UniProtKB/TrEMBL annotation:
Residues 77-124 are annotated as: Disordered. Belongs to the CCDC53 family. Coiled coil: none annotated. Pfam families: CCDC53 (PF10152). Residues 97-106 have a biased composition (Low complexity). Residues 107-119 have a biased composition (Polar residues). Residues 79-96 have a biased composition (Pro residues). This is WASH complex subunit 3. GO terms for cellular component: WASH complex. GO terms for biological process: actin filament polymerization; exocytosis. It comes from the Eukaryota.
Length: 157
């Protein structure tokens, strides 16, 4: 069998290279167009999310006083930063010693909450999650956010 003529071989190789390069150029252009379209959609969604967050924050700050039970929640603003205080552990009830003679020293004292003990909903660490629930954020979403931040989601119950 005679070998393919050199000019014909070069023509085949040139044709293969031009069709391959044309295909790769068309493919890369198509992918680039799709990526630009996705980037544009992502930028639109990001802008819409920023606007929505601003509206929700403004709405939340303006409407916080109208929500029952949250009138006394501290709202964190640049002028009024939140105070981080860990919740105080519950104190065990006092135990009276067992004696036959009642004495005034052994009477159990009523377990009144001291001013240092606060409700968990007033704790700055948890207050924003309680606000999220009262504003209407789904409970599972709030619990997942609490779990992601290392807090106990069972507190919402």
């Amino acid at each position: 069998i005679e070998p393919i003529h050199q000019k014909r071989l070069i023509a085949f190789i040139n044709h293969f290279l031009t069709t391959t390069v044309t295909f790769l150029n068309t493919f890369s252009h198509s992918v680039e167009t799709r990526l630009e379209k996705c980037e544009g959609q992502l930028q639109k969604m990001d802008a819409a999310l920023c606007i929505l967050e601003a509206k929700v924050t403004t709405y939340d700050l303006l409407q916080l006083n109208s929500i029952a039970g949250l009138e006394d929640v501290l709202v964190a603003t640049p002028e009024n930063p939140p105070k981080v205080t860990p919740p105080s552990p519950p104190s065990p009830p006092p135990v009276a010693p067992v004696t036959d003679v009642p004495s005034s020293a052994s009477e159990p004292q009523p377990n009144n909450a001291t001013p240092t003990q606060t409700k968990i909903s007033r704790d700055p660490q948890y207050s924003r999650f309680f606000r999220m629930v009262t504003v209407g954020v789904p409970l599972q979403a709030v619990k997942q956010k609490m779990h992601m931040e290392g807090l106990d989601p069972g507190v919402l119950e």
